[in-house]
Write the structure tokens for this entry.
Amino acid sequence: MLTDREFNAAYDKYSRSTYLHIYRILQNEAVAEEILQETFLRFLEKADPGRPGDFRTFLIHISHNLAVDYIKKHARLKNVEDFPAEADRRDFAGEAEARVLRDEIQQKLVAADERYLNIFLLRVDYEMTYDEIATTLGIPKRTTMRYVENIRKIVQGVL
């Protein structure tokens, strides 16, 4: 289990980027805040203090799963009043299709190699460079580049 100091350092360093990741998925500030809190609670329970390089990836993974769970739980709107006020300006069909496509890509990546999902998220959501991904995951840059090429082939197969 993490010490208070380690937890606070991780929160200070990663809370903003984790919140933005959640918000990109849910497009709701209040729910994103709730999911962020739950993410860090789970992080506190499960994080391995011996592997600080994995904290960012671990937080992204937790927050992504919680956000997807939230979407699944609240997928059915009870009535028309549940739509946000800007519903007439938003392309819900397009957003839903993009989410389905992204879920399919993520499932294919996990099926091929679970590491691919983390690299995909770091590359696409956080626009990290090969060097940044390699440092975050503790793998060589050339390995990162090879993984990204494999990921591209998988994504092209889905598209």
The two ends are 41 Å apart (CA to CA). Helices lie at 4-26, 29-46, 55-73, 92-112, 114-124, 130-137, 141-158.
